[in-house]
Amino acid sequence: MFHAKRFPISIICATSWWIVVALTGCGTTREHQATEQLVVSEAVDRNIQDLDFRPLSGRKVYLDTSYMRNVKGPTFVNAEYVISGLRQQILAAGCLIQDSSNDAEIIIEGRIGTLGSDDHQVTFGLPENNAVSNAASLIPNAPTLPSIPEIAFARRESREAASKIAAFAYDRETRRPIWQSGVRHSVATAKNTWVLGVGPFQGGSIREKTKLAGSRFQFGRRSANSSPARPYERPAVDYTAETRFNQGWPDFSGVGHGPDMLASSEDQQEGQDSQSADESKASQAETEVAEAPAEDASKTR
């Protein structure tokens, strides 16, 4: 007569548990320096694009970086990146950067108040514990049971970077203040989300669209960034966009990229002819408007 061998209930439960875990889908993303560098540089770019140097347009300026010192860290997004970004924004505003302070009319002094990142993690479910394993060890001849792994219905990991950059300007000779940017800060994020073991769904401000484990996932889109619009004669230049300059003036005529980014003499001549034609039309319209009241008056007489 065959007798079925009885297995302890604890072994059956443990086996069933591991089968359930094995059937659950999951994904893993290892993030190290790449994501950290992206969120930190994104925070710096967002901060710099809000600095409007157009009040100093056309002036000879010198960027004083004495108070923008490097801090040792695992990422190369540091003072050099901030300085280069400030120089780009200053040039785009029509300022003439000088290599020496003695050659400049205005001194621009910049500073960094914040440049770093934090990590956050939230789990919706049961955390990992070894209570069952510890209880089984107290029973004589009981088999060793593994610890219960994390049971998460949803989990989110978020990396957040912050940047605070400011600048002010003063006259080199008189030392009188001329302009200051005000103090602003910006934040950039990178987020990974798992739902019922499926993920990571990658989002945040550093990504154009939400992705699933690095693959395209048609959901959501990052809002466009642009430099602030102010009532100045010189148009604002988007710090985050490729821009063409014509004799130092931003040109939005729709010329393509590559070699066409530099304005040719023909482009300049066409621009001048177009401007002359527009001025001629405007002058003719003003003349017609001025003559209209005179004709009406003669008819009345």
Entry keywords:
about 300 residues, alpha+beta, nine-stranded mixed sheet, elongated
Fold and architecture overview:
The structure is a single chain. The chain has a domain of 189 residues. The radius of gyration is 32 Å and the shape is elongated. The protein has five helices and eleven strands; from the N terminus they run ααβαββαββββββββα. The longest helix has 36 residues. A hairpin with a 5-residue loop joins strand 4 and strand 5. The strands form two sheets. Strands 1, 2, 3, 4, 5, 6, 7, 8 and 9 form a nine-stranded mixed β-sheet that branches. Helices cover 29% and strands 27% of the residues. With 301 residues, it is an alpha+beta fold.
TL;DR of this structure?
The chain is of the alpha+beta class and 301 residues long. It has helices at residues 9-23, 33-48, 79-92, 131-137, 265-300; strands at residues 60-64, 96-97, 106-126, 151-171, 177-180, 184-195, 198-203, 211-212, 215-216, 244-246, 249-251.
Task: Extract low-pLDDT stretches.
Answer: 1-7, 17-27, 256-268
Choose one word for the global shape. Answer: elongated
| Biggest β-sheet description | 9 strands, mixed
- CA-CA gap between termini: 134 Å
Helical stretch tally: 5
Task: Please count the beta strands (DSSP E, at least 2 residues each).
Answer: 11
Order of helices and strands: HHEHEEHEEEEEEEEH
- Give Rg in angstroms: 32 Å
The percentage of residues in β strands lies in 25-35%
Determine the mean pLDDT: 74
Tell me the structural class.
alpha+beta
Helix coverage percent of residues? 25-40%
